[in-house]
Amino acid sequence: MSAVRGFTAWLKDIDPRTEVPPKELIPSRYRRPTPHIYSDSEIAQILTEAAGLPSRLGLRSETYATLFGLLAVTGLRIGEALGLDDRDVDLDTAVLFVRHGKNDKSRYIPVTDCTAERLGQYRTTRSRLFGTAATEAFFVGENGNRLEIHAAQSNFAKIGQKIGLREKQPGTKFGRGPRLHDMRHTMASKTILDWFRSGRNPDREMYKLSTYLGHGNPGDTYWYIEAVPELLYLASERAERCFEDGGAS
Question: What 3-state DSSP class applies to 85?
Fold first, then answer.
């Protein structure tokens, strides 16, 4: 109906008799685009290509391989990852501090030891090139300044085109295809999938994941169930078992 409304608004300039359907004619709600859930092999390809990016100082490849890997395992928003200061990355306790998340909310993000080790390797490389006081940022470009979102998106798009996730585009165009933000969707969806497969109660676990991802409303986290067909099937199956058992499962 929104497409019809746009067309009739244009047509009304030509023919005044044209009626433009009012917005409230058919109530609707915002529909999120279906996310791309990366396979393990796709993530491995992305990280391999990132590690091979040409680099004048040897930092560009290190930066993007580490950044994209961090997004894949933590589900951080790209702005949150690039907003990390060096002081926010505590490798002794393996905890990240997101100072300015969505709606300016802060939170702590525990990571695995192997993730902390990889972040430590990146910090060593970055400090060797620029010292420890060159910038507050954890992720930096080869100019020594905080990495910008557009640069991360551009390099991600080029990698996506190279491995076939996006159609190749002329010049510097990104084209359409899987996004950096889909790393977040993938992490969340695979986490929920593991709950179902291991028999854990999604209702009990969902609040933990919601807090970890920085969602203001747990309903935003439940959305991943309907966004991924396999999850929706497993959730439906669980609901049927619960109904058959009289609500016991």
Answer: strand
What percent of the chain stands above pLDDT 70? 92
* Per-residue pLDDT reduced to its tens digit, 23-75: 877 766 656 677 899 999 999 999 999 999 999 888 999 999 999 999 999 99
Provide the annotated active-site residues: 77, 102, 181, 184, 215, 224
Instruction: Give the Cβ contact number of residue 169 at 10 Å.
Output: 14
CA 204/CA 214 separation, integer angstroms? 17
Is residue 191 within 8 Å of 209, Cβ to Cβ? yes
Sign of the CA dihedral running 178, 174, 154, 78: negative
Burial readout 66-93 (b: 16 or more C-beta within 10 A, e: otherwise): bbbbbbbebbbbbebbbbbebebbeeee
Q: How are the residues of the chain apportioned to helix, strand and coil, as percentages rounded to the nearest 5?
A: 55, 5, 35
For residue 31, which phi and psi values (nearest 5 degrees)?
-110, 120
Residue 222 has what pLDDT? 79
Amino acid residing at 55? S
